[in-house]
Amino acid sequence: MHIFVITGPSGVGKSHLINELSKNGLYPLEVYTDRTRRPSEERVTDRVYISVDEFNKSLNDFLYWFEFQGNRYGYKKDDIEKQRKLGRSICFNITPTHLKFLLERLPEAVTIYLNTPVEDFDLLFRRMVERDISPGDFEKDREKKVKKIESRLKSALSEAIDYGEIEKVFSLNPMSRSFVVKDDRTLYEEVLPYILGCQ
Question: Which residues cross the membrane (predicted)?
Answer without folding.
Answer: none
